[in-house]
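User: Last request for today: this protein with fe (ii) ion, please.
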Amino acid sequence: MSHEISEDGNPAVQRQLDASRTQLARYATDLKTLLRREAAKTRQITRVNKQLKAYARDLKKSYDAEQRKNHELEQAYAETIVRLSLASRYKDEETGGHIERLSHYSKTMALCIGWSDEAAQQLFAAAPMHDVGKIGIPDAVLGKQGPLEEEEWDMIKTHPTLGASLLAGSSSPLLKMAREVAITHHERWDGSGYPYGLKGEQIPLTGRIVMLGDQYDALRSKRPYKPSFSHKKACDLILHGNERTKPAHFDPQLLSAFREIHHEFDGIYSRVIEETSGLIPS
Ligand SMILES: [Fe+2]
Ligand SMILES: [Fe+2]
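Assistant: Here's the final one, the structure of the complex with fe (ii) ion:
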C-alpha cells in the first residue's frame, strides 16, 4: 500500500486513494479468477460437446445399421410371403399372370386417384398376397370342376381370414397393408361381400382397389364356369352389371376412375405374360 503524500498533500484524500487502489486490485484479482473459471468452463463445455457429437455419430451409425438390418429382414419376410402367394396360385385356377396383373391394376388405380408413387408402389407389392390364405384350402375344393356345395363355398370364404392370420403380427408397413388387402378383398361396397359384410368406407381403400382389379381380371380370364370375356364385355359388366356382378359392389369413386383408365387395364391384361419375376420386392 502506498503512503505517499498526494499532490495536494491532503492525508485524508491520500487514504481514500489508497483504499480505492486496494479495492481495484481486489476487483482485478476477482475478475482474473472469474475469467479463469469461465475459460475452464468453456473448455469443459467444448469437451462435452465433442463427446456428445461422437456419441451422436455412434448412435447414428448403429441406428443406420439397425435400419439396414430391419429393412433386410422386412425384405426377406415379404419375399417369403410373396413366394408363398406364388405357391398358392398352383392351388386354384388363377395363374402367376393374374397375381402380377393385379399388382399393376392396383398401382395404376391408386395413382389415378391421387396416391403418392411410394404408397402406390407399396400396394403394388402388397396386392399379390391377397389370396395367400388359399394355401389353407383343400385342393379338392379349390380345383373342383363344376358347382360347389354350400359347405365348400363356406370353406373358400375362409381364405381372407386365413390369409390375414398368415400376415398378422408384423410391424412391417408392407405386410400390414398386405394383411388389410387379404382380409378385405372380397368385401363389397354394398355390404354383400365376405367375410364380414363390411359396407362403403368401412372397407379399407386398399381392399376396394384390389377388389376391382381382381374382378376385372377374373372377368377377362377363363374359368371352369365361364369363358374369358373381352375388355369391352368386362367393362360393361363392371359398369352396368349382370346377375353376378353389380356396379353397387364397387366404390363409386373407383368406378369413375375406372371409366377414365379402363384402357390401361386392358393394356396390362394383354401385356403381362405368365411370369412372376417382377414381383419379389426389392
Ligand atoms: Fe380371394
Ligand atoms: Fe385374385
